[in-house]
Design a protein that fits this description.
alpha+beta, 2 domains, 5 helices
Length: 147
């Protein structure tokens, strides 16, 4: 794929000469990173399937907005927070949930219906904070929109 300029965005986006270019809206800059060259291994397939399963959950827009608001507040309180988007925090929370509840949660088979049926703490940001999956910040009690 060749790099191209998107309409309305001041910067390149795409792959070119072994590098990946992308626009970061919060930094208002085009960033470049070296394209990773990963050897194909068995665990790569496992993580790929887990990533696909997590993406298939497709949280509601209200849930996403709660995560965005939570992350913005978290960044204001702690400048060491380097998570680029709500999705990164969401993934981090799901892995923490699997570590905390290994008998209940298997990320390679998790679905939205399973989350609701088992009443898992990732149903809302509020419940994730109360379960210790996310750090407490003032006002987290209002972030209660469900997945």
């Amino acid at each position: 794929m060749k790099a191209y300029v998107k309409d309305g965005i001041k910067g390149f986006s795409g792959k070119l000469d072994g590098a990946i270019y992308y626009y970061h809206p919060r930094l208002r800059r085009t960033l470049m990173r070296k394209a990773p060259v990963m050897p194909v291994q068995a665990q790569n397939h496992v993580y790929r399937e887990i990533s696909r399963q997590i993406k298939a959950i497709d949280p509601s827009e209200g849930y996403r907005n709660d995560f965005r608001n939570y992350l913005n507040e978290l960044r204001e309180r702690d400048e060491d927070v380097r998570l680029p988007s709500w999705y990164s925090l969401y993934i981090k929370m799901l892995w923490a949930m699997q570590a905390k509840y290994p008998d209940l949660v298997n990320l390679s088979t998790i679905t939205k219906d399973e989350i609701i049926a088992q009443d898992l703490p990732c149903r809302s940001v509020k419940r994730a904070v109360e379960a210790g999956l996310l750090p407490k910040i003032p006002g987290y009690e209002y972030l209660d929109r469900e997945i």
